[in-house]
Amino acid sequence: MRYILLLFVILISYGSLYPFRFSGDLIPSSLLFNWLVDNSYRTTRADIVANILLFVPYGFVSIMALSTTRRLLYLSSILFIAGALLAFILQYLQFYLPARIPTASDAWYNCIGILSGMMLAHSIKQYSHNHIPNELATPMDWSQITIPLILALLWVAWRLFPFIPLFSTKSIIAAVAPLMKQPELSITIIIRDTIGWLVFFYLLTRSPFDHLPRFRILKFVFYILALEILVRGNLITVNDLLSALCAFALFASLPTDNLQRGLTKALVIAIFLTLITPLVSATPYNEYLWLPFSGLMKGNPWANGEALLLKIYFYASFIYLLRRTWVGWGGAAMISCGLLLVISLLQILFGHSNGEFTEPLLAGLIAWAISQLEKVATEERAMALK
Known about the structure:
The chain is an all-alpha fold.
């Protein structure tokens, strides 16, 4: 897990300092102090949310990397201070990037993100610990609860992105307006989201939700869609309703074993539809971007962030189901990376998006991260049984 934490530090630094075109002279120490205490710079709610979200993974992984010991508070404090220093150093380095506007307030919001990630990880970890059966003979560790729970939260996070609430009557009416107008059906979106909801429902059948009545899970759909209405820029369309209802109809009628095997294959379709849309020939051919995450750094950051969340959800779910039904972590990594490489190469010929080497790389990183999470949990359980 320490290597995963290092990976997030590298990715955060990569995203904060891209495109690495440094210039300018050293900043005088007096101006630097004034910059640290200056809160006059105005920022938007979108920027605030973005700066908080950027460091949530750091805080989340830092707690997941720690074993349950008496030194948990001390080690958490050290990791928080290290993350805060990283945030301020990255903001300072942006003084030498002409395309960036460094502000100390962004670093403070980064610190809030670290705390948020730490609290979320601690809550999930404690929840998982508390719901493990007490019988020592049961071969179960907290990762078997934590991993499905994290994946389910990824789907909720994608549905509620960008997490900026609006409580005005005007915004609520605008969110449901597509339902009142002539519906624009999209078969690809309905299929993709139906699979997404099905995976979400399946994850809710894992421990400790395995005894939850299936029809009670339908409530989650209404809760999530209701919250979507209160998020800025989110629209509830006929496609959203149809995909959720179709998914629940399939979920309620299929046996769990058939559902688990079918979802692994269905996720291949969902990943394909996520990357190659619309299903048309590319004229002229799209580019293939070999530089990792270069496409993510260009264009609309909110649209890119939303797309990234959906990809992580589908890739991680595919790897998780491969691990449960077919192969080990190494095999799941190879299959997912191979699949993503093929689909990303097909993007050169089809759709409107450039193919990226980022896709198979991201799948490999996700497989490695999930395997490390399971490894840490297994080692903790083995130590507890000694």
